[in-house]
Amino acid sequence: MGGNSPCASCKLLRRRCAKDCIFAPYFPSEDPHKFAIVHKVFGASNVSKMLQELPFDQRTDAVSSLVYEANARMRDPVYGCVGAISYLQNQVSELQMQLALAQAEILCIQMQHDQATIVDSGGIVCRGSASPFLLASTIKHLFVNN
Amino acid sequence: MGGNSPCASCKLLRRRCAKDCIFAPYFPSEDPHKFAIVHKVFGASNVSKMLQELPFDQRTDAVSSLVYEANARMRDPVYGCVGAISYLQNQVSELQMQLALAQAEILCIQMQHDQATIVDSGGIVCRGSASPFLLASTIKHLFVNN
Fold this sequence. Notes:
Family (chains A, B): Belongs to the LOB domain-containing protein family.
Number of helices of chain A: 6
Oligomer: homodimer
Largest interface: A-B, 43 and 44 residues
Pfam families (chains A, B): LOB (PF03195)
InterPro entries (chains A, B): LOB
Shape of chain A: rod-shaped
Distance between the termini of chain A: 53 Å
Protein name (chains A, B): LOB domain-containing protein
Domain LOB (chains A, B): 5-106
Helix content of chain A: 55-70%
Number of strands of chain A: 0
């Protein structure tokens, strides 16, 4: 951060670390890997431009997300972060399917219960909220959304 | 792709498009925006290095994921792709909670049904798989995981 202790970026780029160095607040000399990885993936010049275009209070979050993205690209050079997005989208679809099935099961159980109540009482009794219409719409929702 | 029609990358970088240009198969001249955006976020030199380090059959996927990441960074300069990952992780947590609740509801309904059966028949009848132990473990799972 100026003077005797250059930040990790200026150290790697072998340049003088000015007092107003744009990297210094986010890339301390104790953590050289953090800058090295974003430099390798995005390039120091692009990172500098991206930070300059942001207000100060958003730069820490931007650096964190760039480091996260760069690490993901190093671990998975083909898909990077997009691999994680794809995995999570599949997990969301799978959970939506399981939830729709569980909701359909709740309606099924309630319908069975209602039918058993009608038979047991020998008359027309309506207990619970399940109906064939609701069950059909839940199953339709399940197949339309997956 | 060499000769009279340079690829989008060579056109933007104002250089001759060689026959073995690494960008040409993935950045056709008809789609200049595709290269412009990865160049702005990652830099042409970094994209070239990343592609060179990959076998040919993985380069198309790598370019697609780089374009996706670059677009996400342009839309959201602070969080980029990481914003989407965070959103999806929250969605997964929310769905896991809803699923655990639905599963607990199934057990509750089954237990109520079992109790009604015992009362109706005036004896000890065991119908369904619900038990207080299962219900407790489902609820415990719900609170431990959320």
